[in-house]
Amino acid sequence: MRADEVPSTDPIRYGTYACMAVPRGARQAAADLPVARLADRLGLRNEFDLGADHPPNAISFLRGTGSVPGDIADSGLLRADAVVHVASASAALVAEFSAEFTRLLDPAIRTRILDGVVRPMIYTGLGMFNFAYAHRALQQPARVMPNAFLIPMSKTSAWWQKDWMERHTYFLPRYHDSGRMLAEGHALAAAAGIPCIMRRFYKNAAEPAPPGAYDFITYFECADEAIPTFYEVCATLRDIARNPEWKFVREGPTWRGQRVATWAELFE
User: Fold this and answer.
1) Residue range 193-209, pLDDT digits in tens
2) Where along the chain do its domains lie?
3) Which pLDDT tens digit goes with each residue over 206-215?
4) Are 22 and 30 in contact (CB under 8 A)?
5) Given 3.40.30.10, 3.30.70.3420, 3.40.50.360, 3.90.550.10, which CATH number is that of 13-267?
């Protein structure tokens, strides 16, 4: 007799980012749309003033402040003036919001939808959890962490051809037989951001993602004083001598915004 104790990898949370390019002439009409009533009806709680991490059914409003192109061309995100994020353990709730929200928008508003799922951790054992998550920065009210960054990305086909054990090695440091560290790997490369940058991470429902979709959607929040740390961590992760994993990464645009309290404030 053998054990049959394979843990589930089914999604435990669903999320969507609605990225909108809003023509100047459409902004006042957009600000008057009943998005707040839709969110209230669906029981979505605004992340703006909440601390102690994400609400179970959450909504947030992000006003764009700039973007930088990445390896993958994505004009829908690159030119987005505003982003609305919704997340829940209920796929049906997220789908209902997306459908009704899209129906509310004027056709002149170009919308790029980025969505994904949260699955149970795959590569994270107890030691890595204690290193990377036990003392991580949680979500804070926007007055504490006003800055938001959205960076979707995909891995190359060469990455997906590797088995899970080989992929796992890229998250850890690499050492010479003498004990000298050769490369930091993902975990150490990102370590400076653990205590000061809130991280949110969605995967595509399929692995790898279908053509035209991203494998991963990464999102970050931080205080003003942590912005240099955010860019330093990004630079370290992108340095393939320090983090060889990034040989297999293709990034979309890096989109930056400010967290605001209401839908209408997106258009001020």
Assistant:
1) 999 999 999 999 999 99
2) 13-267
3) 999 999 999 9
4) yes
5) 3.30.70.3420
